[in-house]
Design goal:
Strand order of the largest sheet of chain C: 3-2-4-5-7-6-12
Radius of gyration of chain C: 19 Å
Distance between the termini of chain A: 44 Å
Strand content of chain C: 15-25%
Bound molecules: thiamine diphosphate, magnesium ion
Helix content of chain A: 40-55%
Shape of chain C: globular
Strand order of the largest sheet of chain A: 1-2-3-7-6
Largest sheet of chain A: 5 strands, parallel
Number of helices of chain A: 10
Structural class of chain A: alpha/beta
Structural class of chain C: alpha/beta
Largest interface: C-D, 49 and 49 residues
Low-confidence stretches of chain C: none
Largest sheet of chain C: 7 strands, mixed
Oligomer: heterotetramer
Chain lengths: ~325, ~325, ~325, ~325
Amino acid sequence: MTTSERAELAVTLFTTMARARALEDALAVHIRDHGFAGYWHPGKGQEAAAAGASAALRTDDYLFYQGRGATWPLAKGMGLAPIIGDLLGRSTGSTGGKGAGVPHWADPALGIMGEGASLGSVYHIAAGAALSAKLRGTDQVALADFGDGTSARGTFHETLLQASAWRLPLVYFCENNGISVSTRFEDVSPTKTIAERAAAYGVPGEVVDGHDALAVYDAVGNAVERARAGQGPSLIEATVTRVGGHWEGDAQQYRPADFLASYRDPLDVLRSRVDGAVADRILEEARDEVAAALRDAEAAPYPDPSVILKDVFA
Amino acid sequence: MTTSERAELAVTLFTTMARARALEDALAVHIRDHGFAGYWHPGKGQEAAAAGASAALRTDDYLFYQGRGATWPLAKGMGLAPIIGDLLGRSTGSTGGKGAGVPHWADPALGIMGEGASLGSVYHIAAGAALSAKLRGTDQVALADFGDGTSARGTFHETLLQASAWRLPLVYFCENNGISVSTRFEDVSPTKTIAERAAAYGVPGEVVDGHDALAVYDAVGNAVERARAGQGPSLIEATVTRVGGHWEGDAQQYRPADFLASYRDPLDVLRSRVDGAVADRILEEARDEVAAALRDAEAAPYPDPSVILKDVFA
Amino acid sequence: MSVETAAETKVISYDAAQGAALAEEMRRDPTVFLMGQDVAMGGFFGGGRGLVEEFGLERVRNTGITEAFMVGAAAGAAMTGMRPVVQLGFADFSLIAGDEIFQKLGKWRHMHGGQFELPATIIMPIGPSGGAGPEHSGSMEMLPMHFPGLKAVVPSNPADAKGLLKAAIRDPNPVLYYPSKQLNFKRGPVPADPDLLVPLGKAAIARPGTTISVISYGCMVPRVLEAAETLAAESIDLEVIDLRTLVPLDREAILASVRKTGRAMIVHEAPRTAGPGAEIAALIQEHCFYALEAPVARLGAVDAPIPASRFLEDLCFPSVTDVVELARQLARA
Amino acid sequence: MSVETAAETKVISYDAAQGAALAEEMRRDPTVFLMGQDVAMGGFFGGGRGLVEEFGLERVRNTGITEAFMVGAAAGAAMTGMRPVVQLGFADFSLIAGDEIFQKLGKWRHMHGGQFELPATIIMPIGPSGGAGPEHSGSMEMLPMHFPGLKAVVPSNPADAKGLLKAAIRDPNPVLYYPSKQLNFKRGPVPADPDLLVPLGKAAIARPGTTISVISYGCMVPRVLEAAETLAAESIDLEVIDLRTLVPLDREAILASVRKTGRAMIVHEAPRTAGPGAEIAALIQEHCFYALEAPVARLGAVDAPIPASRFLEDLCFPSVTDVVELARQLARA
Ligand SMILES: Cc1ncc(C[n+]2csc(CCOP(=O)(O)OP(=O)(O)O)c2C)c(N)n1
Ligand SMILES: Cc1ncc(C[n+]2csc(CCOP(=O)(O)OP(=O)(O)O)c2C)c(N)n1
Ligand SMILES: [Mg+2]
Ligand SMILES: [Mg+2]
């Protein structure tokens, strides 16, 4: 990658993250003022992980995200209108407003493959997409995103074992924010990292600073390249910080004092790689775009109730 | 352990294994001649693993075995009558003849806690028994026995993670016979051993020659001691050989030529530690006992059909 | 003395009533302990607040995201002398721990010839909760009706939430306890007496009546009672049966009521098709065929996944109006 | 041309018929592939013998003991252009992969606004097989009746075993295919034509009759037909409906028959309580109330775990005698 390509990438990442952050801030206000159509799990502070990882994927690569924040669909190319449309349960959402609350954004044309809200259920779905690519002879890659808490599910093990034995083009991407609702990672994990468990599956494992979007991009880029070359899965663990509560409105009485100790705002980290005036303009545009999209969504209609019985079967 | 205690142990182990082997041989004939009440998964060749491991447990330690052969209940103190009674579906069985076929031998007073025939379902049950011991403040240990194939289940991961974080008095004991029905271990495992995966859970992992009962006894003994001392779980992997088919009657067309390459008859291996005349007498007595027990079982009544609706609830 | 006539009561929420049951049983019996995600902070729905302060982290155990482990470990602990209570975040996760619940907890005793007791309680909240989505709004209580070996409980009010949970914990069998999330913050009088249980297997007549027997449970009971008020003005006099327990099912209470009224409908939060209402309707027509004046009617959730949108979610479950309208039809039939 | 009138047939076993369906569909469509334990040796029940020789190890994939993975991976492969077929050893294992089957395969399309198709087939053998024990003898086919989004099939003979499996594989939806293990080695004529399907959702009249409508499926169909022979001598003329598919259920076929006979019984291999028969009985009395001369009767397995002992196992399921006796009672009622 040339220096100018790298600079361009930084701008792209910063733009994604600025929009994600503006959306977080606007939603917090919206939820406070208007109530909300459902559960919201804020992603503030974790934008760099999703943005960097997603940028390392092609449009036709398969993304299976875990639903904290909205950086993932934004980064993979979904517009604000379908994202906010779903959040507010409007027919303009990517699911037609069905998948509001706990969001189920999807757009197969963008490789945004949706969410499984029983956590840990997308490891094997992602592996199945990777297997599909392998069987169809394409060089597509599938990425399975998950949290530190979700690494405990048995599905983590079954899939990585099988995917490694089959050398599937799969990337395990962990956002380790050190907590699962109120439960600290160190209280449920006998190892310091999740990456070190990769050896048990004969695959490479790497820890990367998830506050640094470019570092994440590089680490995931290597894993994607390896997968595309037919060398099988990798595990990338991004160390991130959950700035807010588990859900919007979480009183967080459990929150330990040192919880933000290693936090650096990922927008600040990336800003140093972007021209200052450009960054300011991006931030401002992002706020405007989000405000406009939110207004549009509020004005958009709810879906017709008949959608409840639609699409149970094809 | 003194030299004479060690010699005594060898005799005990040899006696267990001789009876297990005699039972295997008698059952093969019985099944050929009389048909059978159910599925039988022969354990010929794997006797040393179960005998050695079980001997390292106290009577009040909890055993959760995987149902190949009958060495486990024998080694943990169950008589031939209840074992064969269950196999033939007679009321003299340990379950009153209910758990015949795929055997569900149990005797809580001997720490024989039964079997879960969805493989991989006893990891967490054993961990629960270990947790129970910890909470009740006893120094009992629980052992979870499993095959190489069964190490792929997600339950392996969930339980070892949680048991390690909680330092439960649990021993994972794997009988790696290199095959799961027709599927070779190397075709589904990216690692050479299962023991090396222990590091991912922050617990010790060790491979031991499962044809050598005393070696197994020593390895499991260390793991049990560690567990009893409150230092948490360990994983012992015994390398064994499945001499027969997956089930009695398996034509084994899949069987690779080299499958018995590393096999040494565990009775021969142990025989060198036992006085020759004593060994001969043990073998002969074992055959006689098994023959008598089989005759008794054949003469014993089937349970009354009303047992079907009994014990659904306490 | 029964819950209905208890001397001293306190007005608390359905959720807090579960917490009170846990605290009392843990105080009474040192073998009772709790496992689940974030139970030390009071659980996802907060009912267990204060438990960790009183009983400590050994007996109020935070687990990882390991539903299969929790239930399997509960089986192991139960068969070795403990009385584990597992808190699953959502009843939907019973499908993650399906082997552990239905093949192990439900069968271990029977398949080992009655040699074990498994006094474990699994708490699994059912139904919608304001947009939790298709994978977190399920009603799974028909499973233990079909798969043997498990008792099953669905409380409809705070007093029962407490009394049934206490009975579940003391029962020698595995009990699946299904609180209805829609009732979490509903408050009501709850007996303070720590020795008062609501026995498993006994239905309650929530409202005596003569026109139609309405068999219901959980969060639909208050809706049916509300409908009954409206209908009373039209001389449609509902007899409302709150099942409380689905396994064992109080067949006598159901059949006696239907023999009296000659008309029956079943209302539940679970999907309509092949739900608990199917078994109950089949049972009623088997035993009350000649007493029935009209077919047994059923109301349940839509036979579709529940959308995450709160706007659509509301439309998926039987409303008071649905009950009123169906009862009117049935009264006329 | 229908399966019933197919020109060319070959007598093969139920099990081999499934193998033939797989081979034909894999030949026809390169996106069809098979995953499961030991499928390369033909699977636990041997029906898939020869597949690996023709299609190789990439399309006939041996997995480890990873049921949740298999089904989850099938969902992922199905939503990205493949037609996976998963072979689970026993239907009981659907409880290990419960989240994957009922929360993912069944809901992914709906919860993502209809943007995906999931043409996956999961083969899960049901019922006893000569002592496989309580955890390997289950009948799980009532689950997809209650949980939305999955079609469900139970073939009763070799021709249907082939035709329904082919239809399942070609269907754009996830289909749960439940062969009855008791029929594995039963032989019968099977159409050779690779384009002949048995459509999902259409019941068959296995025997026309006038006295009682017997609604059945899977391995109970031959037993009911045998009972019908005995009963014919007593002028009890059974109409035997073989459902073939439980989802979608052919309500019209059931209701039309019961309207004609006025008497109905349901016979299945699944436990009686809250089984498929509960839904069907509830449905019949809802729609044929005034046509019914007697309550709808049900026969099913005992409401208990199935003992591993073959001697006891036999006693747990409806026998030909049970059908005969219940039909006599019903004819008299
Ligand atoms: C199987 C399952 N168990 C429990 C939950 C409830 N739950 C929702 S989010 C969450 C915490 C997840 O922690 P982690 O994976 O670290 O992700 P994070 O919330 O930190 O982003 C839990 C337990 C769930 N959705 N699925
Ligand atoms: C969950 C589950 N999946 C599949 C089976 C079917 N099955 C019975 S034995 C067996 C092979 C087990 O292999 P392994 O664990 O290596 O033990 P071994 O048979 O070699 O002793 C399989 C797949 C099962 N009983 N449970
Ligand atoms: Mg986390
Ligand atoms: Mg093996």
